[in-house]
Design a protein that fits this description.
- The chain is mostly helical.
- It has a domain of 122 residues.
- Helices cover 83% and strands 0% of the residues.
- It is built from three helices and no strands.
- It is rod-shaped.
- The two termini are 60 Å apart.
- InterPro entries: CC-FHA_domain (IPR052642).
- This is CCD27 protein.
- It comes from Crotophaga sulcirostris (Groove-billed ani).
- Keywords: Coiled coil.
């Protein structure tokens, strides 16, 4: 956004300079037309005075004025050429700045789309993680209830001593294997009661 604002300010400055240069060009063109009109007027005056007695003196005066006017016209044409060159350069700069502004705006839009996509992915992963956590807690709870049922069933048989401390999963498995090898019977709880 800062880059776009800077480019837009540069663009406004260049466009202002371009307008000012075009205005100067128009002024120079007006001056050139005025000098050409003066030159034509002087030529007409020369034609009207050609029959007078001061013909020779007027010829010298008119020649001097014509020479002066031609010099002014040459200078104005030179300045006009310089102004045209400057206008062309300014137009190129303005076009370049406009392209940079468009490029920066496009880059900004792409970044916003990417950020929105990443945010959506994060939200999806968070939702999946929450679902996984809930499912894990449910499975863990069911496993603990199932484990407790096994322990209760194992140590509820005749002659079994209740454990003095909390049993590990390996110890529970070992007790179940001993009960199975000695053909001891115990009542399994109904399957539909495992989750209760």
């Amino acid at each position: 956004t800062g880059t776009i604002s800077s480019l837009q300010r540069q663009l406004e400055i260049q466009e202002s300079q371009l307008r000012r240069t075009k205005s100067e060009k128009e002024m120079l063109q007006r001056m050139l037309r005025e000098r050409e009109n003066e030159l034509q007027a002087m030529s007409a005056k020369f034609c009207s005075l050609i029959e007078e007695q001061e013909h020779a003196e007027l010829m010298v005066t008119m020649e001097k004025e014509n020479s002066s006017l031609r010099q002014v016209v040459t200078e104005l044409e030179s300045k006009l050429a310089e102004q045209n060159k400057l206008i062309s350069e300014l137009q190129g700069t303005v076009s370049q700045l406009q392209a940079e502004v468009l490029s920066s705006q496009h880059h900004s839009r792409v970044q916003q789309r990417d950020q929105a996509a990443l945010q959506s992915q994060v939200e999806t992963l968070q939702h999946k993680m929450l679902q996984t956590t809930v499912a894990l807690e449910s499975i863990t709870s069911r496993f603990e209830r199932y484990r407790n049922k096994i322990i209760q069933a194992t140590f509820s048989t005749a002659g079994s001593k209740p454990p003095q401390a909390e049993l590990t999963d390996e110890e529970v498995l070992e007790v179940m294997q001993v009960c199975g090898s000695s053909k001891l019977c115990f009542q399994w709880p109904a399957r539909d009661s495992w989750d209760k």
